[in-house]
User: Which sequence fits this backbone?
């Protein structure tokens, strides 16, 4: 996995002190993860530094979604506000935000999958009352979700007119929309003890059909195993999430949209000059095979 290389500079440290009143001195620990953003533990806080391409308005929009969820459930982690009420400031051309430090570790999908399904159901219920308005810049996953449409990275070499038509019809008949986390997988959660205790990283939040996020999360937490994917969906539904029940075809097609956007992101990263290691390449080819294998 390729992680962003973004330093915690003295200028960022001064901004943390000036904008939030937090101590910007001391030893900083680079936290694991982050393909586009870098996070550093600094005392009792986490400093997140995003890419230059991400605008402040877009970041504030995603933070508003996180804050709405955090007001309604303890597992949702939201950013802290600056003295002037914002949640982001720009430093050296990058969006910088400050978050409370949450102790924990990344979960194992096989151990916490059912907890994750139930947590997602409660998260969707919490977000169903949010009305953040249109997202200033579209999330990567949104492109093509409503049907035939090209986006960044195209279709990642996975053109499929039948899938485009299916997505158009699905969203015509499933009109429920509300904000979603947008990237609900193990790497954006933390477990403390045996309990899933935190949902992090809201950068990919967008307004969409909850069924899509349910399908995308199910294949992540179900490790692409059909019976585990179905078990995740059933646990979510039993918890009373906002998504409608998904038959096998709908589940497969929504997963295929997610896989197609992953392939597109891979193409975008290659165009940016990212050099993937063998593990990344193997994973990419496995996901391409899954896209074709799930075709109804």
Assistant:
């Amino acid at each position: 996995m390729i992680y962003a290389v973004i330093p915690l500079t003295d200028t960022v440290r001064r901004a943390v002190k000036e904008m939030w009143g937090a101590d910007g001195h001391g030893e900083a620990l680079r936290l694991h993860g982050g393909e586009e953003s870098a996070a550093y533990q600094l005392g009792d806080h986490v400093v997140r530094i995003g890419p230059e391409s991400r605008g402040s308005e877009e970041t504030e929009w995603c933070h508003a979604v996180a804050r709405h969820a955090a007001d309604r459930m303890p597992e949702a982690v939201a950013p802290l506000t600056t003295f002037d009420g914002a949640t982001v400031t720009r430093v050296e051309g990058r969006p910088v935000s400050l978050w409370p430090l949450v102790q924990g570790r990344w979960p194992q999908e096989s151990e916490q999958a059912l907890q994750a399904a139930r947590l997602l159901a409660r998260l969707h219920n919490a977000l169903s009352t949010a009305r953040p308005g249109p997202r200033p810049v579209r999330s990567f996953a949104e492109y093509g979700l409503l049907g035939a449409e090209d986006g960044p990275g195209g279709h990642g070499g996975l053109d499929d007119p039948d899938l485009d038509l299916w997505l158009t019809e699905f969203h015509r008949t499933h009109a429920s929309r509300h904000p979603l986390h947008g990237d609900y997988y193990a790497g954006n959660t933390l477990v403390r003890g045996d309990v899933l205790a935190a949902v992090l990283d809201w950068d990919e939040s967008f307004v969409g059909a909850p069924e899509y996020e349910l399908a995308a999360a199910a294949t992540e937490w179900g490790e692409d195993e059909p019976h585990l994917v179905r078990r995740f969906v059933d646990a979510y539904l039993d918890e009373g999430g906002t998504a409608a029940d998904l038959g096998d075809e709908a589940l497969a097609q929504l997963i295929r949209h997610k896989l197609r956007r992953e392939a597109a992101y891979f193409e975008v990263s290659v165009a940016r000059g990212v050099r993937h290691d063998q593990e990344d390449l193997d994973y990419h080819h496995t996901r391409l095979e899954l896209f074709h294998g799930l075709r109804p």
Notes: Strands lie at 28-30, 38-42, 45-49, 89-91, 94-100, 178-180, 189-192, 195-199, 206-208. The domain at 109-293 is CATH 3.90.1200.10 (Aminoglycoside 3'-phosphotransferase; Chain: A, domain 2).
